[in-house]
Amino acid sequence: MVHAWAMSQPPSDSESYEVPSQQMPPVAPPMSIGDAAAQYDAEQADGAFPGYGLPGYKAPAAVQPTATEMFTAAANRTALAPALASLFVGILALFTCLVPIIGVLFGAIAAILGGIGLAKGQPRALAGTGLALGVIALTISGIVTAVTFADVG
Predict the structure, then answer these.
(1) Rounded (10°) angle between helices 81-95 and 124-152
(2) Predicted pLDDT at 81
(3) Residue 28 lies in a domain
(4) Structural domain of 139
(5) What is the pTM of this model?
(6) Bridge partners of 48?
């Protein structure tokens, strides 16, 4: 055996280093594709993820929403319909407020939908903005319509 102080000096021709023997991990014999697929299926059936995490780690079960949860989520999405519609129609009414009759119609629809949205307790930002845009567009379009028909008659 070579001592530590001797390792720092180069070996002479007559002496050689002693290489410590290391045990190599055992190598698994090659698997056929069928055996690998069977092993994978067994691990998936057990719920383990091969090669990830701790051995025997089981994946969490997939949670499917119940019919009640799905219906409630769909109802919540459609509950905002009047508020969103008043906002969109209010923006459209504001763009068309200089057109005599069309601006009045869009403004009135936006104001009505905004009032319905506020009455149902929908988000005040959406319904209130739609209501305000509808009233502004209705006022401007009403003035434009009155001036237009006053000049015609």
Answers:
(1) 30
(2) 84
(3) no
(4) 80-152
(5) 0.51
(6) 58
Give percent of the chain with pLDDT exceeding 90: 30
Maximum Cα–Cα distance across the chain: 125
What are the pLDDT digits (tens) for 14-60?
Answer: 566 566 667 777 777 777 766 776 676 666 555 555 555 555 555 55
Nearest CA to 145 among 107, 119, 110? 107
For the four alpha carbons of 30, 36, 38 and 40, in that order, the dihedral sign comes to positive
| Count of CA atoms in the C-beta half-sphere (13 A) of 115 | 8
> Which residues have CB under 8 Å from 89's CB, separation 6+?
106, 109, 110, 113, 130, 134
As for how many domains the chain has, the answer is: 1
Judge whether 131 lies within some domain.
yes
Q: How far apart are CA 11 and CA 13, in angstroms?
A: 7
7, 12, 89, 109, 110 from 123: Cα distances, Å: 80, 89, 16, 18, 15
